[in-house]
Amino acid sequence: MPLEIERKFLVANDVWRAHVTHSVEMRQGYLTREGQASVRVRLEGEAAKLNIKAAVVGSARAEYEYDIPPADCRELLATLCVGRVEKTRHYVPAHGAHDGAVWEIDEFVGDNAGLVVAEIELQAADAAFEQPAWLGRELTDDRRYYNHYLALHPYASWPETERG
């Protein structure tokens, strides 16, 4: 079974911007409400994907991903999604990573504007990695910061006391 292992953090400041190698605009929509699995479609620039993940909170979960025609993805986004997320993903090389790890920094727009989250995919749940000074608190075990949750409960609707 394909397994995604990642850690997720708030971003504390903009120092990371000087290290971005490239960025991609993303639009994604969810075909299911919260439950056993997260089923989404995503446009990454002009590439389109169908993704299915186990709906569990934590650093490791089953994940399946497939290329789909961009036209199909656009139609699904427009007609069948129960929630959507828009963001720009910025890629920053992880210092000290021996496996070529990259920080993926999601800068949300629309109803999730103001939220900036960094993720790093790892080879093992206990893999060591350098935490840059621009990282804030860890969110790996907080489901509110998962994209599926944000699509159904946008950051803009959260009480101010629950943000960041």
TrEMBL record:
Residues annotated as domain CYTH: 2-152
Top-level division of the source organism's lineage: Bacteria
InterPro entries (alphabetical): CYTH-like_dom_sf, CYTH_domain, NeuTTM/CthTTM-like
Pfam families in alphabetical order: CYTH
SUPFAM superfamilies, alphabetized: CYTH-like phosphatases
Active-site feature positions: 30
Entries under PROSITE patterns matching the protein: CYTH (PS51707)
Record SMART domains: CYTH
Protein's name according to its UniProt entry: CYTH domain-containing protein
